[in-house]
Structures are given as C-alpha cells and as structure tokens.
UniProtKB/TrEMBL annotation:
Pfam families: STE3. One of its GO terms (cellular component) is membrane. This is Uncharacterized protein. InterPro entries: GPCR_STE3. One of its GO terms (molecular function) is mating-type factor pheromone receptor activity. It comes from Sphaerobolus stellatus (strain SS14).
Length: 80
C-alpha cells in the first residue's frame, strides 16, 4: 500500500509534495523492521514452551514470560 501511494505521488517527478507522508512511512518502516523480529521471537518462545519436555514452575514461569514479553513489546520497540 505504501509503495502504491508513493508511486502515485511521485510518478512524474521527485519534488517533495507530501512531507507528512514521508514521516508517517518512515515510522511505519522502522516499526516494521523492529516489530516483525520481536513478534517472531515471541512466537518462537511460545512454541518452545509448548514443545518442552520439562515441567516448569507455573507461577514463576508465567511471571518471567510476561516480563520478557513486556520487554520485547515496549522497551525493545521504543528503543529502536
């Protein structure tokens, strides 16, 4: 979608017409480049937990997992 709008806006020249659009797309690309690996890592952690043959301590494990997910979602993404 971003590529289509960019093609329509700058089809005939390279003059900057949509300064706000440039800022929005930059933020989307930066968030996407950090968000996709973080989301993949969270999914892989859940799959590992499902496939693990050991029996984890439920209360401590749940709290630790939530802390890691908060770190990945909030702190990791806000630092990029």
């Amino acid at each position: 979608m971003i590529g289509g709008i960019n093609a329509a806006a700058w089809s005939d020249n390279t003059d900057v017409k949509l300064v706000v659009w440039c800022g929005i797309t930059t933020k989307i690309y930066v968030g996407f480049s950090a968000g996709v690996p973080a989301a993949s890592m969270c999914n892989l952690r859940v799959l590992e937990r499902v496939n693990a043959r050991r029996r984890p301590d439920k209360s401590l494990d749940t709290r630790r997992e939530r802390m890691v997910e908060v770190f990945l979602c909030i702190i990791f993404l806000s630092s990029s």
